[in-house]
């Protein structure tokens, strides 16, 4: 399961941060998961719950931001929002699209104590 590996990566990152910064508990983990990133927020939350057990991230709340997919339409010469990676332009229906955002997956912030 893709999300389980991601959750493991997040917990590892938190442990590294804890070692570097000296915090002992994580209250909230703020994540950015783009709509085009192929990560299911619910599966990620479930995986995080499982892999964080027994670590300093156990019981931390996950707050997930879900920015929409963004693309630049070469025909319209403007930025548009897309729901899927290969969707046509919502304005002109064309496919000359360059994906510009919405496929990121990163930890934005940790709230620690
Ligand atoms: Zn267009």
Automatic annotation (TrEMBL):
Pfam family, one: HypA
Keyword Metal-binding part of the UniProt annotation: yes
Keywords recorded for this protein, A-Z: Metal-binding, Nickel, Zinc
Binding site for Ni(2+): 2
InterPro entries recorded: HypA/HybF (IPR000688)
Protein residues bound to Zn(2+): 73, 76, 89, 92
PANTHER family reported in the protein's UniProt record: HYDROGENASE MATURATION FACTOR HYPA
Family: Belongs to the HypA/HybF family.
Role played: Involved in the maturation of [NiFe] hydrogenases. Required for nickel insertion into the metal center of the hydrogenase.
Protein's UniProt name: Hydrogenase maturation factor HypA
Organism: Azospirillum oleiclasticum
Gene assigned in the entry: hypA
């Amino acid at each position: 399961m893709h999300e389980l590996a991601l959750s493991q990566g997040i917990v590892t990152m938190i442990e590294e941060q804890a070692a570097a910064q000296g915090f002992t508990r994580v209250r909230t983990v703020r994540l950015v998961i783009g709509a085009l990133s192929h990560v299911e927020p619910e599966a990620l939350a479930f995986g995080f719950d499982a892999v964080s057990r027994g670590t300093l991230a156990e019981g931390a709340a996950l707050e997930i931001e879900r920015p929409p997919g963004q693309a630049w339409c070469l025909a319209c010469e403007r930025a548009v929002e897309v729901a899927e990676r290969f969707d046509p332009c919502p304005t002109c229906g064309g496919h000359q699209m360059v994906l510009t955002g919405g496929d990121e997956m990163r930890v934005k912030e940790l709230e620690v104590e």
